Amino acid sequence: MNRRSTRTLKLTALWLVGFHFLTVVLHSVAHEVLSVTATPAQLAFIVPVIIFAPVVAGFMLPKIEKAGAALLLASMLGSLVFGVYYHFVAHTIDHVAHVARLRPEFWSATFQVTAGLLAFSEALGAAAAGLMLAGRPQPFKQHAARTDF
Fold first, then answer.
1. Whole-prediction pTM
2. CA-CA 20 to 30 A from 34: which of 77, 113, 133, 149?
3. What is the pLDDT of residues 116-146, one digit of tens each?
4. pLDDT per residue over 28-40, tens digit each?
5. What is the rounded CA–CA span in Å between residue 47 and residue 78?
6. In the chain, which stretches have pLDDT less than 70?
7. How far apart are the first and last CA of the chain?
8. Contacts 24+ apart (CB under 8 A), 36-44
9. In angstroms, rounded to a whole number, what is the distance separating the alpha carbons of residues 1 and 62?
10. Residue 53, CB half-sphere, CA atoms under 13 Å: how many?
């Protein structure tokens, strides 16, 4: 991967981190307005993994690219699995089909749209981070055999 495509990929990842954060904020407001509350165990995952880890990864990417990309990959994959399960698979109060019946309608629609946007941004963020980790292999260093034994 050349320097220009690496820079583009890093900027894309940073843009996705910002988009994800803003979407999380809007989704959280919808949760509050609709009284769709997370359990303490869910919050113990949501706060560090879904909210803070991508932001920390975004701050790390410019200076510590590999570690930032690894943190971004882990946080986005964890967020994606969590969100898809609770919003689209498990039949709980957090499922988009259940939320569709809640009022006010604006916040119900906002919840549903942001749930989809979160999954989308998490999948793209994980892909970008994975490409950053895989795209720049370390050069193989040739070492001369020692002959001074």
1. 0.88
2. 77
3. 999 999 999 999 999 999 975 544 455 555 5
4. 999 999 999 999 9
5. 12
6. 1, 136-149
7. 40
8. 36/93, 36/94, 36/99, 36/102, 36/111, 37/93, 38/94, 42/86
9. 17
10. 22
